[in-house]
């Protein structure tokens, strides 16, 4: 959802539903379907999954509410919102740094997000060509491998994805996209259900194995690395810590119940991720693939299903179309903050600001894309560029801005007013206070420190 567009056409969301769809549009994306399963696979399954679920509700939910609440108060872009709200509460304008780090984070994330968005787009074509017909894990693995090795190909689709994102943001046709998503999102949900059903039907005992892998509590496997990854992913998957939800909050009417809306968004986001996991891991186990395969996981596993089920070609095409749309509603939300900032701080107009920022993001994306082939051996701090950017954003920047938001919301703002705004009774206000003042900040600090040891 292009927030700039919303500003011009109406100063507030037309309905609670419209707002929720936009927020869910930003939240639900590649993070749920592409990133969640491969991280779960790399981190050994349930330890990561259960920690992620816990963090979504205990840490993500309150921060989501606070981002909206602060955004609704400030009614501006994240940086000026932080400045104004801090000033109005009698604090230093330096709180703007929470907004600044957020904008830089969104910029960096989009550079690799667009590369993966390009993969999803290209897989529409591959599925339509019937490339997966009758394929097993060996074949889909080879298809993916040769796909990754073809730099021109990856570059083309990264360029297409970034260009479409920039076009939507520059032209402000986000509303049209949002309308399309009202059909695509439920469609994606239904297709995921079909895939889970298919996985259950064909993979027999592997389905149970997948369920155990993802959900059997095994607390011995929880370590600092898995916890930090789960925290970072909770932020990533709810689009938190980048000022994006704050910007969305600035278009919210006073009558919207932040808590119940946030619960709905978190639950939706979690459901999509879990469905994706349950569609993918039975196929991983049934086909002898590696759970820790990495970023290629869904591109290697799901095509096996499409290649072997009745009507698989058409379902595959639809799936990757829906996935591309889900990625686009997230990518436009990632581009918006940079464009908004350039528009306000430089003489550039909206179109030039979009073109300028997209070009830089696109160029950085090329470097990420080369990390999968020609530059695979180019490493900084032991990581290739793709891993490095992911690490820097998800594991450092997002938790830090999230921490800034919750400390600001719980310690710097007038709590009585927040209580009225959230409409909390005594009991829930106590829960809220304990959570936002102590549990969330302390947990984030411990996880950050522990994760780096
Ligand atoms: N939440 C999106 C996803 O899970 O794919 C990704 C994302 C969008 C992250 C917007 C951050 C953001 F601000």
What would you note in describing this structure?
- This protein is an all-alpha fold.
- The protein has a single domain (16-452), classed as Hydantoin permease, CATH 1.10.4160.
- Helices cover 79% and strands 0% of the residues.
- Helix 14 (297-308) packs antiparallel against helix 15 (312-345).
- The radius of gyration is 21 Å and the shape is globular.
- Residues 1-11 have low confidence and may be disordered.
- The chain binds 4-fluoro-L-phenylalanine.
- 4-fluoro-L-phenylalanine binds next to helix 2, helix 3, helix 6, helix 11 and helix 15.
Write the topology of this structure.
Elements: H1 3-9, H2 16-27, H3 30-42, H4 46-74, H5 78-88, H6 96-128, H7 137-149, H8 151-171, H9 174-203, H10 205-215, H11 224-237, H12 244-249, H13 258-286, H14 297-308, H15 312-345, H16 350-370, H17 385-412, H18 415-422, H19 426-452
The structure holds 4-fluoro-L-phenylalanine.
Secondary-structure element order, N to C:
HHHHHHHHHHHHHHHHHHH
The number of helical runs is 19
Structural class: mainly alpha
Largest sheet: none
What is the overall silhouette? globular
CATH topology: Hydantoin permease
Low-confidence stretches: 1-11
Q: Oligomer, anyone? A: single chain
Q: How many separate structural domains?
A: 1
Distance between the termini: 38 Å
Query: Considering DSSP H and I runs of 4 or more, what fraction of the residues is helical?
Result: over 70%
CATH class: Mainly Alpha
Mean pLDDT: 89
Number of strands: 0
Rg value? 21 Å
CATH architecture type: Orthogonal Bundle
The amount of beta strand, in percent, is: under 5%
List the ligand species.
4-fluoro-L-phenylalanine
